[in-house]
Amino acid sequence: MIGIASIPRGKSSIQALLCGCAIAFLAPGPIHAQLFTFSTQELMDYTAQEPFDRLSDGRPKVPNDMMERARELSSEEIWAVLQQRGFNNQYADGFQVLHPGKTMVGRAFTVQFMPQRSDVDDIARAKAKNSGRAGLTNQTAIDMLQPGDVLVVDLFGKKVNGTIVGDNLFYYTMKATGGGGLVVDGSVRDLNGISEIDMPAYFRAVDPTPIGNVMLTGINIPIRIGGVTVMPGDLVVGDREGVYFIPPQLVKEVLDRADEIHIHDEWTKKKFDEGKYKSSEIYSTPTDPKLQQEYQEYLKRRLEEIRKQRSPK
Amino acid sequence: MIGIASIPRGKSSIQALLCGCAIAFLAPGPIHAQLFTFSTQELMDYTAQEPFDRLSDGRPKVPNDMMERARELSSEEIWAVLQQRGFNNQYADGFQVLHPGKTMVGRAFTVQFMPQRSDVDDIARAKAKNSGRAGLTNQTAIDMLQPGDVLVVDLFGKKVNGTIVGDNLFYYTMKATGGGGLVVDGSVRDLNGISEIDMPAYFRAVDPTPIGNVMLTGINIPIRIGGVTVMPGDLVVGDREGVYFIPPQLVKEVLDRADEIHIHDEWTKKKFDEGKYKSSEIYSTPTDPKLQQEYQEYLKRRLEEIRKQRSPK
Amino acid sequence: MIGIASIPRGKSSIQALLCGCAIAFLAPGPIHAQLFTFSTQELMDYTAQEPFDRLSDGRPKVPNDMMERARELSSEEIWAVLQQRGFNNQYADGFQVLHPGKTMVGRAFTVQFMPQRSDVDDIARAKAKNSGRAGLTNQTAIDMLQPGDVLVVDLFGKKVNGTIVGDNLFYYTMKATGGGGLVVDGSVRDLNGISEIDMPAYFRAVDPTPIGNVMLTGINIPIRIGGVTVMPGDLVVGDREGVYFIPPQLVKEVLDRADEIHIHDEWTKKKFDEGKYKSSEIYSTPTDPKLQQEYQEYLKRRLEEIRKQRSPK
Amino acid sequence: MIGIASIPRGKSSIQALLCGCAIAFLAPGPIHAQLFTFSTQELMDYTAQEPFDRLSDGRPKVPNDMMERARELSSEEIWAVLQQRGFNNQYADGFQVLHPGKTMVGRAFTVQFMPQRSDVDDIARAKAKNSGRAGLTNQTAIDMLQPGDVLVVDLFGKKVNGTIVGDNLFYYTMKATGGGGLVVDGSVRDLNGISEIDMPAYFRAVDPTPIGNVMLTGINIPIRIGGVTVMPGDLVVGDREGVYFIPPQLVKEVLDRADEIHIHDEWTKKKFDEGKYKSSEIYSTPTDPKLQQEYQEYLKRRLEEIRKQRSPK
Amino acid sequence: MIGIASIPRGKSSIQALLCGCAIAFLAPGPIHAQLFTFSTQELMDYTAQEPFDRLSDGRPKVPNDMMERARELSSEEIWAVLQQRGFNNQYADGFQVLHPGKTMVGRAFTVQFMPQRSDVDDIARAKAKNSGRAGLTNQTAIDMLQPGDVLVVDLFGKKVNGTIVGDNLFYYTMKATGGGGLVVDGSVRDLNGISEIDMPAYFRAVDPTPIGNVMLTGINIPIRIGGVTVMPGDLVVGDREGVYFIPPQLVKEVLDRADEIHIHDEWTKKKFDEGKYKSSEIYSTPTDPKLQQEYQEYLKRRLEEIRKQRSPK
Amino acid sequence: MIGIASIPRGKSSIQALLCGCAIAFLAPGPIHAQLFTFSTQELMDYTAQEPFDRLSDGRPKVPNDMMERARELSSEEIWAVLQQRGFNNQYADGFQVLHPGKTMVGRAFTVQFMPQRSDVDDIARAKAKNSGRAGLTNQTAIDMLQPGDVLVVDLFGKKVNGTIVGDNLFYYTMKATGGGGLVVDGSVRDLNGISEIDMPAYFRAVDPTPIGNVMLTGINIPIRIGGVTVMPGDLVVGDREGVYFIPPQLVKEVLDRADEIHIHDEWTKKKFDEGKYKSSEIYSTPTDPKLQQEYQEYLKRRLEEIRKQRSPK
């Protein structure tokens, strides 16, 4: 998968896809042989609003520079834009956070498991074999990871035998994604080993058992993590509190709004430091028109500075 | 849907499906317009081992007389065969049981919801409209129910706005399925009204709010209920304890074994009533060879009686 | 308290109370000697919107005939009006329900306890004694109950020593309220005895210990039960699911709307029984204009019948 | 075990046992071959205060007529004496109650299981075999039950494979104990079957799996159920709320006190029915000296009546 | 609020307050316009036993030097005095602790919220406006904080929309209280931002949503946090385990006892280090009279040293 | 206890013990005076498979050098051997871990408490006194600890009054065991103090109350911690995830296998670092025979190096 150039930006939209003129795009075979198929065309249809290029597997490709900026985001800043746009179900929490001080940012690579059921799994494996694929295991998915990915796994909260990785595969995932990250509605094993590896991870539990009694049912299909429907290619941002899954079409707005919130907080704290004002005189909006104007000017100036700083890059 | 004759028994097997010679079978359009598509062909492939006819929508059709016999089953009797065949994940519990004394038996009609996400749902709805379908709501699914069905719904444990039905739709479901039943990993509303309707139901919670903030993502696709992968057409059996989802190919064996267990318990209790034996002398297997023989003869005779009773039907 | 006539309807409104012209009304002394005082004037100010008479202790008095009609209400019917009026926090559940088939209806008589703290309680008791009151116990409150009341108690979920009543005081409460009811965010004791008494009750737990290690901090003050702010005089309606606390000013609208919902369900079920329609063709609104008209006429006719039935009373 | 006469009342006391003059008493071998041995002598030492005869296995034998009277007890009545005597840890709740309206009364027959560990269990089984015993299973214990026993089992809250009985052994237990009862800190299987058998039972959960992955570690040894240390021979009383384990030496006091409480409640309710008194004027003690005297006379008269009723028996 | 001198020590006592001779003391208006009023006079009455000066808002003012000493306290040391004085309900735990290594010490500034209910809140806001106050929000309360305060908030465990502060108001609170602290039976938002601010905080959860769907119902009134009744002005001490709310009248005794416990532990560990004694020979009281004497002399000498160290300050 | 030499290796085996030829071995009296006696002979019988010397109290003595090697173990490495040998119940988790980065290794010294029951405890204390022992408290057990021990305590999950140690006894335990460790299915107190002491500890909760309302019922008897049967002398290994209790007879195999796993992980990561392979080509077994051979050679060489490193010690 490494070295495959990203494909041109998908122009498809809802209208386009319905008149049948969506761009033909053929992904490699493997994702057709699980229980749930979600073809590259379907993936492109359902993420038609995303404004960026696509990865070779059809997922939206939030640009690297935006991912860089996203490292400064906090959950609250993301919430502000998402709730305004009516996306109230994009946040999941209740995880054990491996490295609480380290923000996680990356593109969602989704994997789904379901409880093992041999009659179904036998067929899926036969189909996979027939289509030239060796197996249907967690490694099948992990081997497809790309730089910048966050591995997002639905293991339905399973603890015993719900361990998506131990320290070896966690290390490999770190290498393959360039330190992207892991979110699993399930568990990990070998916490001692994992703790020493510098990649963010969010999991429900830890257990010494290996993964088992489950079957791989989907790769890069829509999955559910807690109360969130996660789409392949969503921008995943994790902080100390939890994890946001941002639809690609909202990433730019989130980042721009965050610039303003950073400046707002900067100015607010500076004012608080002066010790002359009560909180309600300054926050969230200054009550005094003069202060309000002062803030507007500060905001304008700082926004310009920030943009200037960024442009040379 | 009413009145459509069931189609001939599917001969397909794993071998068959892999050489591409599976029977062509076209289901009506609607199930293609959700987020997850699971075509009739896929459904037939993945349930290729089932030995019965199929319903018009492609689901295996466990025969009515077997459903009748299944009303005598208890969870333990089902467990005995399933664990022996390696099916350890077919039981779900933790439900509120509406009518604890009433066994639920029927063919699984599965429905999946996921957390609402407007960018995805807009496309799904546009696709549905384009394919001539009005909407994608709980009623879309409920209107497709057939006699003998149990409605099995994944609402991911949602309580508030996770209410698949109130008393009106519960009543309709009872009418459409002939009192089949309901299993929802979610909630219902209007418990007072529902309590007066004579259909078994298993739910996680009760709430006064209507269903909302979710999107319908699949009808008659494989779904997860607790730790179970449920396939459309599974035989659903619910008692006071919980719900079993029996793969169709195991139904006959389960029923036959249950006959033996019923006779075994009959004989065991009769022996206990004599007051001459300790439990371990009788149960689970008599230790005395003479008693063992007595039991074998009893078993043989009673099995014959039972079969005779059934044949005239 | 028995035999005291109810006082004339409070004309006060928000406007009135702010210009200081609220009706002077002096309640008897006792409710001033707890930790939290909520004078009759305050109670009347904060419930100024209620359109009915008041009880002698200043609580709004939802009329008896409306209470009678309220026995037909279900949680869903109440929800419909309350959410429309922006009252989203008036429902509490998670209780053990003593008599699930028996609807509870009555006027909220509220009592609050807090964890015992002798420095505070000593003063409260000294004050109570000084104002001529013997004690500050659960019986102090229970002795003030009136016919038609539901005793609503905040015992902050306490199980051990959080038992508001045993069977003796439960019996007394039944007698004093005329079978009104009990809601306690805490526990009861003597479940065997209580089970034989014909009054609805909602409690979190059961324990053999008597009430203790708490102090009575308020009678007929605003209290919190789960996620609900309960005001004295709210109409309390409990069914199998949970308990609604309806602000008096919304009672009539809830009851009238419920009439329509009852008729709607009557008609809907009748139509389902005809077996000619899918659920979505009938429910929640008929799609066919002719059916829609048929329904409207049915609704009109039945509403008239119901009103006629009621008027002679 | 059946037909063995009960042995003479143990005269041993703390003093006696310490001078080494305790009565020699040999129980049958089997209870020495588990992990935990608790010899008949130890059992007699640790229950030296009990005033009754003993069963053949050394357990205190609360007399049958007292067991009969105990059927009228409620948890609260037991609590009154036990807390006064400093026994604050004899109550367990949080069970599923099989037949809520049916009081359970019997002598504790205790059984302990621990998580399976083959190195330990192999030795225990070898020892058991060497001492002439066939096995160490739940049936080993169940076969030792006597009329009037309640089977009390520590299965450490285990649900899956923690099912002490299914309907066959539940039926046998009912027969062997004369409908005594079952308390298990674990689960049962075959709830449908069990529900039809007329014996009280208290369990944590229900599961279709059979007992397994545990080892029997003690019969008639001290065990822990929730927050209670249960001794073999304790009087077990279960009602709708939970289960009390009453040390034999306190049984008579509990029963006598209960007589008074019954009469007290009888009188209190009668007075409430007169409608002339507030609850605090009557309950818990009448405030008026005349009423107080009336009550005392009532109590005396009724006590005499009750005793007279009992004596002919 | 800064710079307002503290008022003279309240001489009132239970006796005083009951003869009506309590000191007249008028607090500023704002605290009268919430749902619950607790006048300065009431506050002074109910904290009449406190031996110190009072703050301008009437709360007891535990002196700064005692607050300094209290930084060395642990929960166990406080427990020792409080349980002896019969205060068994002054400890709350189950919080997320922001900076586990940093002890929190300050005077309780209490705030209460209840579930939103517009009929009640409209009146409260009208009253607030009428009495010249702008609003009734979390900032209304936060703007009243004084140096040395710990903000203690009852948000009834609410997570979503139960966030008392984000990083801006947390920063302001830190500034206003001089790093006092925060205890909230509810949540905070912006954990990343808050983590970098050097003030102790105890909260139940973290969420990205802002505060909402609640109404402010009291400032500096008695509130409940877990199983504790918190009075305004209580000395709040938080360590890694939980939070103690110490009535002011017990502060000195707690501190003096803690001195002894510190010395006791110092000596005990020194003895353990000698390696000559079993724990029971030294702890909690030396069994050897000579050691007992050695300890007593050590205690006396160290107490004198400590007091000498303190006096120059 | 200090300075007592360890006794010669027990030759007893299952066969030996059953023909009555087990080595006579007399432990000191104290462990006979609790409710549960488990004589040194019994302890030796039930741990007859252990291949090492024994401690003076009869427990198996896993050698110090093996304990040293065990510091490198992780839960997963232990799991690999134990599940293969059929020991599936030797792992407990759900603890608060005091020093997450510090591995705990030591020999299990077990202690059991049960809920207080004065009739039983009085006898136990009388027996203890008669046999010359002062008391039956947590210190009775703690005073018996030896270097290399881990104190393992069953306090049945008790939080309030379930605190096995505060900082004084924790310090003593650290001294007595040489920093061995503590596992308690219960709580500790004085977390602030304990946090500064360099010994691993695993506990369920923290509380300011001292231990109470319990009775000591066994020292160095088999106990249950979560789902594990712990035998005295088990090798206890705790990491960030949880605690393993390894039967002594499996220690060597676990350690040897761990050497291989360490080398395997070393090699695997090295290969991943080359960036040429997908995870499934390397892990868990290389698919390419040449790589497989490379690995085998690496394994052999490294094992030799490791053993050489160890031998001089």
End-to-end separation of chain A in angstroms reads 28 Å
Integer-rounded radius of gyration of chain A: 22 Å
Largest sheet of chain A: 9 strands, mixed
Estimated share of beta-strand residues of chain A: 15-25%
How would the blueprint of this fold be written?
6 copies of one chain form a homohexamer.
Chain A: H1 14-18, H2 40-46, H3 64-70, H4 75-84, E1 91-93, E2 96-97, E3 104-115, H5 118-130, H6 138-142, E4 149-154, H7 167-177, E5 182-188, H8 191-195, E6 201-206, E7 214-219, E8 223-225, E9 228-230, E10 235-238, E11 242-246, H9 251-274, H10 279-282, H11 289-310
Structure description:
- 6 copies of one chain form a homohexamer.
- Chain A is of the alpha/beta class and about 325 residues long.
- In chain A, about 35% of the residues lie in helices and about 20% in strands.
- Chain A is built from 11 helices and 11 strands.
- In chain A, helix 4 packs across helix 9 and helix 9 (about 250-275) packs across helix 11 (about 290-310).
- Chain A is elongated, with a radius of gyration of 22 Å.
- In chain A, about 55% of the residues are buried.
- Mean pLDDT of chain A is about 90; it is low at about 1-30.
- The interface of A and B includes residues 14, 90 and 116 of A.
Which short descriptors sum up this protein?
nine-stranded mixed sheet, 313 residues, alpha/beta, homohexamer, 11 strands, two-stranded antiparallel sheet, elongated
Quick gist of this model?
By secondary structure, the first copy, chain A, is of the alpha/beta class. Chain A contains 11 helices and 11 strands.
